């Protein structure tokens, strides 16, 4: 299936999830994250969840990494050029919804993507080669292409990977791992 069809299908599948399914799936995902080797991780990039789209709630993940002494980084979106600016998310950072309803830091210190050791990536679906379908603007592919080569990219998803995304292009970046409920 092609990205556009997959995007539509998996938005609908996510929307159809019940609250109890989401809670159960998230607990399974969190447990897998808690088992990751963090020995070489200092800075962790996470997305702030869009609850209206039933994205995985990343707040427990943020709390876990903070409790383990890791610095948390989140992004601000620039819709003029579809890029992300990255900022530390400290305990006192103010987060507000932008005009598109995306939570973003307001009073935060900027940081380069070359500083990230571990990046969690939102997605709608992935394939068995860890290519992903997101919302279609290319924000994350641009961002990940600028990260240091040692950085690890992990996708978070409620659904198991499909066999193949038919229209992968040269700008698409595969993830190192996709975590989904087992």
Task: Note the topology.
Layout: H1 3-15, H2 19-34, E1 43-45, H3 59-67, E2 71-78, E3 83-88, E4 95-97, E5 103-105, E6 118-122, E7 125-126, E8 132-133, H4 139-145, E9 152-156, E10 177-179
Parallel strand pairs: 1-2, 1-6, 6-9, 9-10
Antiparallel strand pairs: 2-3, 4-5, 7-8
Walkthrough of the structure:
- Helices cover 25% and strands 22% of the residues.
- With 182 residues, it is an alpha/beta fold.
- The chain has one domain (3-105, 122-179): Rossmann fold.
- It has a six-stranded mixed beta sheet, with helices on both faces. A two-stranded antiparallel sheet has the order 4-5. A two-stranded antiparallel ribbon has the order 7-8.
- Strand 7 and strand 8 (132-133) form a beta hairpin.
- The chain is globular.
Features:
single chain, globular, 182 residues, 4 helices, Rossmann fold, alpha/beta, 6-stranded mixed beta sheet, two-stranded antiparallel sheet
Low-confidence stretches: none
Span of the ends, CA to CA: 23 Å
CATH fold annotation? Rossmann fold
Helix content: 10-25%
The tally of helices reads 4
Order of helices and strands: HHEHEEEEEEEHEE
Q: What is shown here, in short?
A:
The chain has 182 residues and is α/β, with parallel strands linked by helices. Helix content is 25%, strand content 22%.
């Amino acid at each position: 299936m092609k990205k556009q069809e997959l995007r539509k299908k998996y938005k609908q599948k996510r929307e159809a999830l019940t609250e109890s399914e989401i809670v159960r799936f998230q607990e399974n995902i969190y447990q897998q994250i808690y088992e990751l080797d963090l020995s070489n991780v200092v800075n962790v990039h996470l997305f702030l969840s869009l609850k209206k789209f039933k994205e995985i709630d990343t707040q427990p993940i943020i709390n876990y990494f903070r409790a383990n002494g890791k610095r948390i980084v989140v992004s601000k979106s620039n819709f003029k050029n579809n890029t992300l600016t990255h900022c530390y998310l400290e305990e006192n950072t103010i987060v507000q919804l932008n005009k598109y309803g995306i939570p973003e830091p307001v009073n935060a210190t900027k940081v380069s993507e070359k500083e990230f050791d571990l990046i969690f990536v939102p997605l709608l679906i992935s394939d068995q080669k860890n290519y992903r379908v997101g919302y279609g603007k290319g924000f994350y592919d641009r961002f990940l292409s600028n990260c240091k080569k040692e950085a690890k990219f992990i996708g978070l998803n409620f659904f198991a990977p499909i066999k193949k995304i038919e229209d992968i292009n040269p700008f698409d970046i595969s993830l190192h791992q996709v975590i989904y409920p087992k």
